[in-house]
Design a protein that fits this description.
Blueprint (H helix, E strand, L loop, with lengths): L14 H8 L1 H9 L20 H9 L5 H19 L5 E2 L2 E2 L8 H8 L8 H29 L3 H12 L3 H4 L2 H19 L12 H6 L13 H21 L4 E2 L8 E2 L7 H9 L7 H29 L3 H13 L2 H7 L3 H22 L1
Helix pairs in contact: 1-13, 4-5, 5-6, 6-7, 6-14, 7-9, 11-12, 12-13, 12-15, 13-14, 14-16
Length: 363
Amino acid sequence: MTSIGTTPNPYAQYGSAYARAAATPSLAATLSGDGTAGDLSASNAATNLTLSDAARAQLAKTPQPDFATVTNDARTTLDRLYTVAGVKAPIVDGKTTIDLSTLDRRSLFAISTNNGGKFTPDEQAVAATELKQRFDKAMAPSLATTRLTGDYSVSYKAALDYLDGASDEEKATATWASQRAAVLKGVQATQQDPTTAPSGIAGDPVAAALAGTMTPSTGTTRDFSSVASDVRAFLDRQKSEAAKSGKELVYDSRRKTGQLADLSSLDNRSLSAISLNQDKKFSGEEIFAAKQELNTRTRLAVLDALKQSQSAGDPRQFSLGILKQYSSMSAEERQAANWTQDFQDAAIKSYKSTSTLLSILKS
């Protein structure tokens, strides 16, 4: 690393929580399992578990169903949801009666645009609302980071990434093209000056969100005790399946016998429920395994932020990555990872001091 004079490392203030998260030897051992750093290309900074680059590449090779098939499947799913909920419409007395969270973005787009004429106006409205909420959720960490640091580039880049993740059918619409053109102008403006909010861009969804006009998400966060109960049932099912095979469910990969518990499909809030064990539902082995999995994901998130900073040639991106990660975490996840308010404040201070240093160097 190149240092300039005796300027102190702006990240040294992060304290013990960051030091544990970014410890290279622990990270290397975790990644490879044999004491070598291994391939770091699969790291990611998502709060919830996401697919590795290798997995994404494999999925990219898998032929996707045509849009007619997606539409028919969406119709079938809606009918099934009505049966399960005991209703005949998605909106009754002004309230939504079904949960569309299991549908992917392409299916929701098929419903919202009434592809094939298979969907009612209310179904289109509910699907459009779900799509809007997903955009809001995807943008929330970046918007929070922008408000904390005054760096608008992080929000515009997040919006551009979200739009570019659309299906080919969605990309073919005038609405998508208009939104992307607006966001791209914002990205280009922030490349010139990330500390000034782009203005005068027609149809800019980021500007609307930052101005507070974004429609609040109507989704509610599940009670943490309920999350813990679900995770308890999840682990018990694994234990039962192991017993059917005459094996013991174990939580230590070093064990030579038994079936190793799989926590990879759990999101970070579920892992936090095990780690914090507020309702005393979990054993010491289960708690230790959950903490290990959380620590691994935290290290990968920190490493990804560092890699983004290095690839961009902008040391501020490291602090921004940390802040985005912090903003995306629930209160329980922060507690389990020991990411306190002081940790966030230190990241903000680091960002600002680095920005000041870069401004001095440029002048």
